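Quick one, T. Sequence first:
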Amino acid sequence: MGKSFFEIQKNRLRLFLILVTFLAASVILSANISASSLTKVYDTKIVKVTTDDTGDWTIKGTTKAPSGTKVYATTTVKSDESYGTNSGSNLDQTTWSKVKHGKFTISVEPLTLSDSTSYKAGKKFKVYIFAAKGGIKSFIDSNSTKPLSNKSMQKVSKTVTKQTLVLTKSQAKYLNNLGSDSSNSYSSSSSDSSLSGEAKDLATGSWKAGTDFKAGYYKITSTGGSGNLTSDNGAVDVNAILGQSIDNDLGQVDSYTAFLTKGTTLNISGMQGVHLEPLNINASFDLSNVTAGDYLVGTSIPAGRYTITAIQGSGNVMSEGGSLNEVMGTTTDTDLGQVTNTTVTLHKNEILSTSLEQISLTKQ
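Structure tokens:
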């Protein structure tokens, strides 16, 4: 017996719904893929490599990519935590390097190209330098929190020629001193070539980095009570009220991130003690949640122009080696000269210091 009219219509409707569902899923999947994957990758040819006065390579090259295409640089080493993270920029380190009439110039940072903690002249870096369409839209995301996807890197590895960059003696010296210069308070007088640090608890008192504990870049927290945390003779002197809880009225924070270079004296008073937890100086931070402490621009925070907003607490926000010096809080206070936000350009090797519990940085 043949199928009834209603059965035929029901089957047609079922097929129609299946088709609509399939098409919708395809559109969603396509959107997700295009948002996170490179759509086109172009190989490049390196013409000239030089170094600048901030320890970076300046690379000139050619490519068949059209004008306006973004140029990336990333390590070829899959096991490196920097794999897929963009280490390239324009010469000002503020935005993308882009192709112009088949040519490009890109600045490449050794600090973000590898997770090394010390540098020697002659050290070789295997890199992919390529032009690409699609992928990550934000320059800040490209060299901080959002590396290229595995699928994108598979495309890169199949298309792009591996290149070798060699660290010069002057670069190694500069990088081991974290790029210090006369305008930067991160002084080259620190002879410690590594800030890897080592976890340690310290009781109330005064302690010297390099003698009582290993010099390093640390997140410092209270192990009991609250009190004053200060330092002397360091890259950036610490001056914070530290406790196990946040007290906005007192300006008390629950952690402080600090460079404790060799020779720095750390002073702890009014509390039981502190815990030092080492941080990777090359690691990037969540720019929407920057807590009290000191951060090196160009590594912890990408160089660029930002609007800085107070999220919690009040206090000083300044840049060592830069022009920023503001009293900030979640409300304005004309008597104190306190503002809720400020817009500023942060240059590579400046140190951003904040005494607020939390600020956010929004790329402009």
